[in-house]
Amino acid sequence: MTSRYWVKLFMSTLLVGGLTTGVVGFIVRWNEFEPIFTSFDLLEILSVLIWLIGVGFIFSVLSQAGFFAYLTVHRFGLGIFKSHSLWNAVQVILILFVLFDLVYLRYNAFAGKGDSIWPYVGVAAFIFVVGAAVAVMKVKMTSKEAFIPAVFFMVVVTTIEWVPVLRVNEESWVYLMIFPLLVCNAYQLLILQKLNKASQEQRQKIAKKPAK
Question: Using an 8 Å Cβ cutoff, are 28 and 175 in contact?
Fold first, then answer.
């Protein structure tokens, strides 16, 4: 990919992260922000929105770091295992391991006596369903071989990016972070093919230009 399209990917993902966090932030922290809407304090609303967008930019950068890291790991994995099927099998094991830990470790660490495990199962299931849905879209855009890597990225990498707030387990921050991460990761995964194609066309046009 040319530098022009890397910058385009960075800036567009930054915008996606900021806007998503701005919207989600008011929803998941409505109890905190409701008074400023009730009093229609426009200046306060704008200041909170700007703050949420800034937080979203941070989430976006974290998402992009995870995406670029995964692209490297994916190539590295293919190089080690020398087979798509074997590398996919390893990724499936890691997906199951992360989903199990997302339930088991969080439940053991944060659940009170008598608390149900199902809310923890529900969070893991939600991430998996979103990941599978994005993977299906990726397959339609590319090939069936993209399904497992896409699910791996959406589940495993998103969870790793999510770890800072998972360790704190403050509910509003848990939900404030996961939605922008999922949206940014899905956006990058689905837009990559289009940007790669546009970048290749740009390279071809440059190559065809006569040297001066």
Answer: yes
Three-state DSSP at 170 gives coil
Query: Model-level pTM?
Result: 0.89
Rounded CA-CA distance 158/156 in Å is 6
Q: In this structure, which amino acid lies at residue 167?
A: R
- Cβ burial of 8 (10 Å; 0-12, 13-18, 19+) is middle
Question: pLDDT tens, 46-75?
Answer: 999 999 999 999 999 999 999 999 999 999
CA dihedral 40, 46, 51, 56 (to 10 degrees): 100
Average pLDDT score over residue span 76-80 = 89
Question: Whole-angstrom Cα distance, residue 1 to residue 189?
Answer: 14
Say how far apart CA 125 and CA 128 lie, in whole Å: 5
Residue with tokens 């567009």: 12
Q: For the segment 166-193, what is each residue's pLDDT rounded down to a tens digit?
A: 888 888 889 999 999 999 999 999 998 8
Please answer whether residues 154 and 130 qualify as being in contact, where contact means their C-beta atoms are separated by less than 8 angstroms. Answer: yes
* 155 touches 127 (CB < 8 A): yes
The end-to-end CA distance of the chain, in Å, is: 25
